[in-house]
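Researcher: Please predict.
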Amino acid sequence: MNKIMYLEFERCIGCRSCQAACRECGGHDAKERNYVEYVDFMESRQTYPMLCMQCQDPACARVCPANAIQITEEGVVLSAMEEKCIGCRNCTFGCPFGIPKFDFEENKMYKCDMCYDRTQHDIAPMCASVCPSDAIRFIDFEEIQALRRRRTQMNLIEGKKPTEQDKWQYVPEFFGVYSD
């Protein structure tokens, strides 16, 4: 397994097909686990997909007193295990991205787990399989390297520089299902 989840925010057209596909995924109980956010709702219609960043050291798992959030060998951070989750919502407060959501009716946390039942078999997550603008992709490591080189060249041409000490520093260089 050598696939990686790749997001290209500039390509998002705000169609929300990723959310619809997520709701239709088996085991999601008709609830989406990804989101489409506005960059600046007051000034722009620009949107971007928001998925779990699958952090290397996930804050949601660190603050869980019941050890209900598990991380697979491939690095995928799963939703809280129902039998262990005590409903404290620490995970929802601990995540710097606001990804875990709490269902008060079911009394459990749910979040994007990259459709682990699919991705562990190299099948693209539901959101990536339906994205019409390729803002969400499930691609090979070599393909992402080429995209990164092209992105770096474009940033140099456009004069963009990364900002320091923002929340993106917690995100691994690549996120998703990957192995050496």
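Model: The radius of gyration is 16 Å.
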